[in-house]
Write a structure and sequence with these properties.
heterodimer, A: 651 residues, alpha/beta, Rossmann fold, Transcription Regulator spoIIAA, five-stranded parallel β-sheet, four-stranded parallel β-sheet, globular, B: 247 residues, alpha+beta, Alpha-Beta Plaits, 2 domains, two-stranded antiparallel sheet, 5 helices, 23% helix, CHP03960_rSAM (chain A), catalytic activity (chain A), iron-sulfur cluster binding (chain A), Radical SAM family uncharacterized protein (chain A), rSAM_sf (chain A)
Chain lengths: 651, 247
């Protein structure tokens, strides 16, 4: 259907994002395949294209001979309007085929703020918004990604959800669909969904009934037929070396938010930061080996031509062989104009050594650390075990090694937080500047503090916490800004940059994160009222969400505040209690009580198991090195390129 | 150190790439192909690539030019082959020559554009083109980042004619998505000026002089660039390099 789309493209901004043609994209013959997936990242192409989850599943699925996978992204409102005028359906960018023709529409939700964009895509594709209205000919709408650990707010719109790692789950779902189609689609859509639920891999919301009590609380969530399990568990891919994806990273023609290739060096994190949903739901830690990493990087560079490689994970400096990995990669790619980067979050001198190694030949511009909380007390509450002394030692080492800028990440609105905790951020930043001036002997060093609003998330110890209201967050940020610029320390304040957003979007994210099925009506009303791209401040409308929440929730005896700023009790049935992340609920509750007492919890990677429950529940175990293996050098190096091409003749 | 000049095409759906998109794609393709590029010095080294006036976003081209510097002497034909294989289909390397004396940019005096107007009757188009050529000045409005700006589109137009068929230029053909409609085809030679007069500006000029409103957006392709000869034709800008290579 590209010929129908093409005349619209000269009339929209950045048309290249809709044409496909990325390097390493796959376009299969439609008729040569039996199970067809459309994979959506529900945000703009520039954000969605680099998403690792979609890239991995796209490749895993396309490697199956009779399976076809294509990608689709949210279209901007300018194209949406033209598509409606000219009756052009939501399309995939690979084959430019309408979404309605696929067997599965898989939507990857890194954040809940993509929910309205999914509705736009469904509507443009002429797929009924409500799962209950779909027929045997419509795709199975399947949610994945971290937000799928509580898909209840979108339960009306999706047919299915998968919790956790998708590499193996997509193959199993494909098998169920293939068999059902081969049998002539017996029992229609209902039988297909039941078979998916029966497999234990997939959560089918409509096969579970939610009942509510008079006070608005959930009474129970129960399966409404025999073949369906009471609880659906997350999926965990073990042995990352057996899954070296993406092998051929997609390289877009358009500019994207990550102009580099990424290699996931391990999955999972057991640092136990209590605010961090990713760290809780991706346990246990599974490392990729040093030679597995080395092979993926070389293969990826040859396939993509990228100039930079990011070593990704939730806390990359924690890989058991990170020192060897950085040193050996830096050796291997010296003189090839290939940059290596490590998202730095660990606050210790070791991290500086790694950063120095990776920037051997390049500029030392900025380093990023995430103390997350301004005061020692609040850092104990959130279990971010960093002392101010550690931080100052670390930044002193950074400035002494020629780094000129340090970026510090914090959160505002944490449980038990007071104004004083937040004001400590200003003190910390000033101490960083003082230490840096002394260490570097220069006045032009900088420290940027970046502050995000805290949103309590399901499957974390803070799932019971009251979310801080936006007015309090905004007032604390105002006071912090004043403290940074206070008269006495003006020269320090000039070297400190401050970045933050107001607290309103966080409250809506909070509603969507911890909401139940009743929140679906709010999402639909916002969308019908024009809500799109809620992750973009220029498109997000707080007032629209507040109005929709009032209109849809208050008649049911609940409210925006009921879902967000209210503290939950131990007895309360949480909307996601029937979805199992492996974490023992009693352990989470105890960790919540420890948080309130500012008591810390160790990391099981280096200390004995503390019984969070994941490994026994999921039949998994931590997979870490060291392996002691070495990377083979790539020879000869030093001609300015990491790739050798024998076909390139000398004259 | 060796300088190589390349002619490449921007075809099909890749006409929607911007110049920055093309530049990024080339840099990555050069790395994938293992081309030993020369890099600039400094903290942030860049491969040495000189672009010569790129076709606008949304416009296809059979005649784009770029010059690269490499640190080892290479056979230009084999470079063209491996680079073409490393680029996405639609960005196609057509020719590579070792640079001879003189700059490439100053050889680009004018461009030949081939503009398809699906749904526009060729006779209507001919009348509009006659009116345009009869004028000495035609001011058109262009939307830029800084707002609206007026430019005179007429003096840069050297030749304009309406043709019947798609011609024999590779990559250029009648849009088959509108088979039921007639398709006017405009060939126009436009001088490189500052500010540049683009195919869109020529179409705006036709709107001004003859109220020509194409029902769907036009498809433009640059078919040649080079030095103007006395008849309004264009000479091949790489001819001099080719001769120097033979001598």
């Amino acid at each position: 259907m590209f010929p129908r789309l093409e005349p619209l493209l000269p009339r929209v901004s950045k048309p290249v994002q809709y044409v496909g043609g990325e390097l390493n994209a796959t376009v299969k013959e439609w008729d040569s395949t039996t199970v067809r997936w459309a994979l959506m990242y529900p945000d703009a192409y520039e954000v969605g294209l680099p998403n690792q989850g979609v890239m991995i599943l796209y490749e895993v699925l396309n490697e199956i001979p009779d399976v076809l996978a294509e990608r689709t992204y949210a279209v901007w409102p300018d194209l949406e309007k033209l598509m409606r005028e000219h009756d052009v359906p939501q399309f995939t960018v690979d084959g430019h085929r309408p979404l309605g023709a696929f067997d599965v529409l898989g939507v990857s939700f890194s954040t809940e703020l993509g929910y309205t964009n999914m509705l736009t895509a469904l509507d443009l594709a002429k797929i009924p918004l409500h799962a209950a209205d779909r027929t045997v000919d419509h795709p199975v709408v399947l949610a994945g990604g971290h937000a799928a650990f509580n898909p209840e707010p979108i339960a009306d719109f999706i047919d299915a959800a998968v919790l956790g790692d998708g590499e193996e789950a997509v193959g199993e779902i494909t098998d169920v669909i293939r068999a059902w189609k081969a049998e002539g689609r017996p029992g229609g859509r209902d039988e297909l969904l039941t078979r998916l639920a029966e497999s234990g891999t997939v959560y089918i919301p409509r096969l579970y009934d939610v009942t509510y009590r008079e006070d608005g609380h959930i009474d129970a969530v129960k399966p409404n037929r025999d073949r369906v399990p009471e609880v659906v568990a997350k999926r965990t891919t073990m042995d990352l070396d057996a899954w070296p994806y993406p092998k051929k990273p997609l390289v877009p023609l358009a500019e994207s938010v990550h102009e580099r290739m990424s290699v996931e060096i391990f999955r999972g994190c057991t640092r136990g930061c209590r605010f961090c949903q990713a760290g809780m739901i991706t346990r246990p830690v599974r490392e990729r080996s040093i030679d597995g990493i080395g092979a993926m990087i070389q293969q990826g560079l040859e396939a993509s031509g990228f100039e930079e490689v990011g070593l990704l994970s939730l806390s990359s400096a924690d890989h058991s062989e990170i020192g060897e990995i950085t040193k050996q990669l830096a050796d291997r790619y010296e003189g090839t104009n290939t940059g290596l980067s490590l998202p730095s979050t660990r606050v210790d001198a070791f991290n500086i050594d790694l950063a120095n190694e990776l920037s051997r030949n390049g500029r030392r511009s900025g380093l990023t650390f995430a103390p997350e909380g301004g005061s020692e007390r609040i850092r104990r509450v959130i279990n971010k075990m960093v002392s101010e002394e550690d931080l100052l030692k670390t930044v002193t080492a950074a400035y002494a090694n020629g780094w000129r800028q340090v970026k510090l990440y914090f959160m505002c609105g944490l449980p038990t937080e007071t104004d004083e905790d937040v004001l400590q951020i200003a003190e910390m930043a000033k101490n960083v500047i003082r230490a840096g001036r002394q260490a570097s002997g220069r006045k032009d060093i900088r420290c940027t503090i970046s502050i995000g609003g805290f949103v309590p998330k399901p499957h974390t110890p803070f799932q019971w916490a009251p979310q801080c209201d936006p007015d309090t967050v905004d007032s604390r940020l105002r006071k912090l800004r004043e403290a940074v610029n206070s008269d006495r320390d003006r020269s320090l304040g000039r070297n400190i940059g401050m970045r933050y957003h107001d607290g309103k979007p966080s409250l809506i994210e909070g509603l969507l994160s911890r909401g139940d099925r009743r929140v679906g009506r709010v999402i639909e009303r916002v969308w019908r009222d024009g809500g799109r791209f809620d992750g973009w401040s220029e498109h997000f409308s707080y007032d629209r969400w507040v109005a929709a929440a009032a209109a849809e929730l208050e008649p049911l005896g609940v409210s925006l505040n009921w879902f967000t700023t209210r503290e939950r009790t131990e007895e309360e049935v949480l909307p996601w209690d029937h979805l199992d992340s492996g974490l023992d609920k009693q352990w989470l509750w105890d960790d919540w009580l420890d948080a309130l007492d500012a008591r810390e919890q160790d990391d099981c990677r280096w200390t004995p198991c503390f019984d969070c429950g994941v490994c026994p529940a999921m039949g998994t175990d931590i997979e870490i090195g060291p392996t002691g293996r070495k990377l083979l050098p790539i020879s000869p190096v030093g001609i300015g390129s990491p790739v050798q091409n024998p076909a390139l003749a000398k004259s | 150190m060796q300088k190589i000049r390349l002619r490449y095409a921007k075809r099909g759906r890749l006409r929607f790439t911007s110049h920055r998109d093309v530049a990024r794609a080339f840099e990555r393709a050069l790395r994938r192909a293992g081309v030993p590029m020369a890099y600039s010095q400094g903290f942030n080294p860049h491969p040495k690539i000189s672009w010569i006036g790129a076709a606008p976003t949304g416009v296809a081209s059979e005649a784009e030019y770029v010059e690269i510097q490499v640190v080892e002497a290479l056979d230009p034909a084999s470079l063209a082959r491996v680079l073409d294989a490393a680029l996405a289909p639609g960005l196609d390397v057509l020719e590579a020559v070792q640079a001879g004396p003189g700059g490439l940019a100053e050889r680009m005096e004018a461009s030949d554009w081939h503009i398809e107007l699906p749904g526009v009757d060729p006779d209507t188009l001919s009348v509009a083109v006659e009116r345009l050529l009869a004028e000495e000045h035609v001011e058109v409005e262009r939307l830029t980042k800084d707002g609206r700006r007026l430019i005179d589109a007429r003096p840069a137009v050297i030749r304009a004619e309406v043709t019947e068929s798609g011609g024999d230029t590779p990559g250029v053909g009648i849009d088959m998505s509108y088979p039921e409609r007639s398709c006017g085809i405009l060939r126009v030679v436009v001088r490189q000026t500052t500010p540049a007069v683009r195919p869109d500006d020529v179409l705006s000029a036709l709107r001004v002089v003859a109220a020509l409103e194409p029902p769907v957006p036009a498809k433009a392709t640059r078919t040649a660039q080079g030095r103007l000869d006395d008849e309004g034709g264009l000479s091949d800008p790489l001819a001099l390099d080719r001769q120097a290579g033979l001598g």
